[in-house]
Design brief:
By secondary structure, the protein is an alpha/beta fold. Helices cover about 45% and strands about 15% of the residues. The protein contains eleven helices and ten strands. The chain has a single domain, classed as Rossmann fold (3-Layer(aba) Sandwich). It has helices at about 20-30, 45-50, 70-85, 95-100, 105-115, 125-150, 165, 175-190, 215-225, 235-245, 265-275, and strands spanning about 10-15, 35-40, 60-65, 90, 155-160, 200-205, 210, 230, 255, 275. An eight-stranded mixed sheet has the order 3-2-1-4-5-6-9-10, with helices on both faces. A two-stranded parallel ribbon has the order 7-8.
Amino acid sequence: MGEYDLSGRNVIVTGAGRGLGRAMTEALTEAGANVVAAAHISDDFPELEKACSGHTGKLHCVTADIRQPEECDRLVAEAHSAFGAIHGLVNNAGLTFTYIWPDGHKREAWRETGEMPKFWEASDEIIQNVLDTNFVGADQLTRRFAPLMVEQGWGRIINVTTMYRTMTKQGGSPYGPSKAALECATEIWNKDLEGTGVTVNILNPGAGAITPGMSEEMKARDKTLEKPVLIEADLMKAPIVWLMSDATDDITGMRYDAKPWDPSKPAADEAERIGAKAGVLLYSMPDY
């Protein structure tokens, strides 16, 4: 079962079909939690179901576009229908650089010349979709689930943002601004939920994560760097289970990176070593 038993916990993970979301879903169901796995596209659900088969916790997959308020309402209803009370929400769904740089020649030009796409080259549609997915969708779901968690006196809200240097990376608009909005919201939500039994924390990979669809060329190039930046999504597993456990009843308004997290060591020790107040790393970035 591992260090923490999450039996009886019901959790929603958005963007659960692949990458970070899939890793966290696998870890939560293995620890005993029942997980509603939400994704915009259902193509990855068969592999997710296979990966979670045999785990103690149950898995319920839902196709939902969290950019749409009515889809968020449906997700709430399906989650309650599947498992009853919801104890945790992981706001992981996101549109990243592979979406905001849709033209292959842009990426190739960057590799060859170092010239990044300019913010004014992004279309209105890209700007709106990134903001709606990375921030508005998370906000819509959290506003629906937070009151229910407050009523039951216990809950976990986990937001996946990104590093400050990624938020401000040239060529990273609107991805960076959308994640900065979620980072700021984390601090506000934490203040509003003070004393309710509902905690709000941030869990980031702490680097770019290796995900399905990433080219072998990109992964090979990363290995040639003096300090490789890509990590395996599985590094999210140990911290997400700890954050969803009873051990973190008094942990809120914090920010954790998975890259330096050693899953072979006690989670509480690693959290104390790595954690920082949410928002603090926007001004001071450690070099792990």
